[in-house]
Specification:
DUF922; alpha+beta; three-stranded mixed sheet; DUF922 domain-containing protein; signal; elongated
């Protein structure tokens, strides 16, 4: 009983003194996965057309991030990268295979930049104790659009197939 009274006394003193106990913020839970879609054309021209037709939303690659938080401010980010994968790379002429492999590596690096925007949004929401989360998400959606504008959807970073 004496311990309970001491705890109550300490809590009241803390509140009167202006101290508020807040739990330590947990780091956001980040989940990243990569999905692929299959392409089979064997020429650069054919691959460009096939990726435009089969790729998500008409793009060769795509990143979707989804940020969620609980009323207690546990933040999670789910990031899904979608990239092309050749169904029979041995059928590609050497030059086309090298160009395709280089393009996919550059595309993956570009998409990871989009994923990093999602991760940054999750961390910022967590640091803000989940206040203004929707505005933070809009901020990083704009950052994604600016990244694509600045890089021409990755073309300036080597996401080309010549």
């Amino acid at each position: 009983m004496r311990v309970v009274k001491s705890l109550w006394r300490a809590m009241i003193i803390g509140l009167v003194a202006g101290f508020v106990w807040t739990p330590a913020l947990a780091a956001p839970q980040i989940t990243e996965t990569t999905k692929t879609y299959s392409v089979s054309e064997t020429t650069a021209r054919g691959l460009r057309s096939e990726m435009r037709n089969k790729g998500p939303k008409g793009f060769w690659g795509y990143t979707r991030w989804d940020i969620r938080w609980t009323p207690g401010c546990r933040v999670s980010a789910r990031i899904v990268y979608t990239l092309p994968q050749h169904s029979n790379p041995d059928a590609l002429p050497d030059r086309t295979r090298r160009a395709f492999d280089r393009m996919v590596a550059n595309l993956a690096a570009h998409e990871r930049l989009h994923g990093q925007n999602g991760i940054n949004a999750a961390h910022e929401i967590s640091r803000a104790n989940c206040k203004g989360g929707a505005a933070i998400i809009r901020k990083y959606n704009r950052a994604d659009k600016e990244l694509d504008r600045r890089t021409n959807h990755g073309a300036r970073d080597g996401v080309t197939l010549d």
